[in-house]
Amino acid sequence: MDREQLGDFLRRRREALQPEDVGLARSPRRRTPGLRREEVAQLATMSTDYLNRLEQGRSPQPSEQMLTALARALRLSDDERGHLFRLAGHPAPERTGGSSHVAPAMLRILDRLRDTPAQVVNEFGETLVQTAPAKALLGDATALTGLARVTVYRWFAQPASRDVYARDDHDERARAFVAELRSAYVRYGDDSLAGRVVRALDDESPEFRALWAEHEVREKHPATKRFVHPEIGTFTLDCQTLLDTDTGQRLLVFTATPGTPDAEKLALLTVIGTQSFVETR
């Protein structure tokens, strides 16, 4: 681990970014070049003191999870992310399907959707980043660890996760999740995250085993989904998908037809999501 070079790299990348680059508002009295340490720390969900020690070369070796969060907060490219990992004494992450690194361009789009339920998922259905309204709608999946970050795993291993969908749609949701998992499994093989999910659910869920045996394949969910929220009730949203052909990652954006009760409920959800985000960060 090269602490001096790591600190210098983090500092220079922080100073090269502007608030607008990461979806933050610029204060009229702002004098600091680039982002402040507390802003990067907030984006990476770490303490400002820890980031300060990293930049000053006084910290222990950061974990790969921490480096991943920093790479996303600093909007690093794949090359820059690999450099960051090597400076910290870790091997550079492989550039394979199902990567957890979200491209800066995708993050810029998400920054402009902050008042809309939207999230980025990889080809395995692992949630990588969410807007505050998406967390209010679907729960904060980015705070989870291990296989629980993958939607299909939560669906069968943690049945309470199904409560966000209308009960009458559960069978359709289950089949869609299993079919998408099979597509990823065939593409990336048994040694991939998809393979680990399949093995875990084969052990844990008879329901999953039965659906898996049907060998149904599909790569897309139905575009219209019914959700249930404890404060808002049941409402229907359209889910549009933007595919990043370089990474296979998908940006999911949830909208409602203007002028409908669903649109009114979505607007209320946006308020709830913003309040929750302010309280927890």
Description:
Helices cover 47% and strands 11% of the residues. It has helices spanning 3-16, 37-44, 48-55, 64-73, 78-87, 104-111, 132-138, 151-157, 170-188, 193-204, 206-213, 261-280, and strands spanning 118-121, 127-130, 224-229, 233-243, 250-255. With 281 residues, the protein is of the alpha+beta class. The two termini are 30 Å apart. Helix 2 crosses helix 4. It has a five-stranded antiparallel sheet. It has two domains: 3-87, Orthogonal Bundle (434 Repressor (Amino-terminal Domain)); 104-280, Beta-Lactamase. Strand 4 (233-243) and strand 5 (250-255) form a beta hairpin. The protein is built from twelve helices and five strands.
Q: Roughly how many Å is the radius of gyration?
A: 20 Å
* End-to-end Cα distance: 30 Å
Which structural category do the helix and sheet elements fall into? alpha+beta
Q: According to CATH, what is the class of the largest domain?
A: Alpha Beta
Number of helices: 12
Largest sheet, strands/sense/barrel:
5 strands, antiparallel
According to CATH, the fold-level topology of the largest domain is Beta-Lactamase
Approximate strand percentage = 5-15%
Succession of helices and strands: HHHHHHEEHHHHHEEEH
Indicate the CATH architecture of the largest domain.
2-Layer Sandwich
The stretches of 5 or more residues where confidence is low (pLDDT under 50) are 276-281
Shape: globular
In which order are the strands of the major sheet placed?
2-1-5-4-3
Number of strands: 5
Protein name: Helix-turn-helix protein
Organism: Microbacterium ginsengisoli
Domain HTH cro/C1-type: 34-81
GO molecular function, one term: DNA binding
